[in-house]
């Protein structure tokens, strides 16, 4: 582990950044992290096999950053699984997760750490408010508010709102809770891995959104034709529902889930430029979403090499 930023805080925090071939955005992200008034105790970069000089840039311009190279693109899901694995192994208490296109605004980490430290019942996560480049709420990261009155009261005492889930854009997770559950499902690769993982954290405790902490992120672009990514969207959406043990989800019929995704697939088919790719992606997504499940990987298994990703 490289040198940490020790500023006397009781809660040890690792910032975990997952990156792939976005060197200019990564530079802005790391600069924003290093300029925080409450700096992370360590910055862990998980590089997913970048070929654009990202690692060399970090080693030259940000020598204090701990770089872990996967050697292959594991997607956001695999990258964050590795990042949490390494943050746990380094002995940190919390991890602040984000992609390389996130830019924490000044003073963003302090309120998150303060809320987690002073909470009588520690939340599973405390997350930043995601804003677009204009500073307005980001429409792709709107809060999933909890209807639980007791949880809202707890979150209100911390200056925030109770939420059921959060994206991996500025979410500070409790690593004590994370150590007791499987890592993010790396097999998701992209999409819905963050919602699934933070739902687990909030079920065991509660999640909090803090307006006092803000992080900038580009707006998601509507994908009229998802192409091959339709496979991940359908499969992971079905996995998300199957992995949720809440009574509301259990009462729903898996056939109904599949039918909903089939309708989405048909709509995509009407706009697909490559119909063969669309058909393969839709059929495979429906099949794997209903018939298969992601691998369960516990903390320690990646470092012990008892489980390997992307091989």
TrEMBL record:
Keywords from the UniProt entry: Glycosyltransferase, Transferase
Gene3D superfamilies xrefs: Spore Coat Polysaccharide Biosynthesis Protein SpsA, Chain A (3.90.550.10)
Pfam family for this entry, one: Glycos_transf_2
SUPFAM superfamilies (UniProt xref): Nucleotide-diphospho-sugar transferases
Database matches in InterPro entries: Glyco_trans_2-like, Nucleotide-diphossugar_trans
Xref: CDD domains: GT_2_like_b
Domain annotation Glycosyltransferase 2-like: ranges: 16-121
MF annotations from Gene Ontology: glycosyltransferase activity
Pathway(s) annotated for this protein in UniProt: Cell wall biogenesis; cell wall polysaccharide biosynthesis
Entries under PANTHER family matching the protein: GALACTOFURANOSYLTRANSFERASE GLFT2 (PTHR43179:SF12), RHAMNOSYLTRANSFERASE WBBL (PTHR43179)
UniProt family annotation: Belongs to the glycosyltransferase 2 family.
Protein name: Glycosyltransferase
Native organism: Arthrobacter yangruifuii
